[in-house]
Amino acid sequence: MPDEPEYLTRPFIPDSQIGHYGRLHIPGKPFGVETFLEDGPLSDETVDQINQGRLQLYVYGRILYESAGLKGVNQFCYQWHALTGSTFKGDRAGFRKGGPPEYNKHT
């Protein structure tokens, strides 16, 4: 992964529009976003390599938002944590915050 995150060149939420491209978020309510792989579905072999810890899988993104007239950005990155070898009780596979520092910040 490059030190600086690379995003699509077109914004998801234009400065002057909310409804069509964006959505309102109500504090305390879940906010879900679907993530699609750039190159399509993963092969069974690739999934096996990820689960064995030989390949890393990252999901990263950026949310542009406005609250009380102030615009902000929330950048995030999650890395797949695979269970390999000895594990602790309660440890489980799944995404955890990770990646280079520049991928996890907000204004």
Give a concise summary.
With 107 residues, this protein is mainly beta.
- Give the averaged pLDDT, no decimals: 76
* SSE order, one letter for each helix or strand: HEEEE
SSE class: mainly beta
Cα-atom radius of gyration: 17 Å
Q: Bin the strand percentage.
A: 25-35%
Low-confidence stretches: 11-17
Number of strands: 4
Mass-distribution shape:
globular
What distance separates the N and C termini?
22 Å
User: In which range does the helix fraction lie?
Assistant: under 10%
Report the major sheet.
Answer: 4 strands, antiparallel
> Helix count?
1
Question: Could you describe the 3D structure shown?
Answer:
The structure is a single chain. A hairpin with a 2-residue loop joins strand 1 (58-67) and strand 2. The chain has 1 helix and 4 strands. Strands 1, 2, 3 and 4 form a 4-stranded antiparallel sheet that branches. The protein is mainly beta and 107 residues long. It starts with 43 loop residues before the first helix and ends with a strand. Residues 11-17 have low confidence and may be disordered.
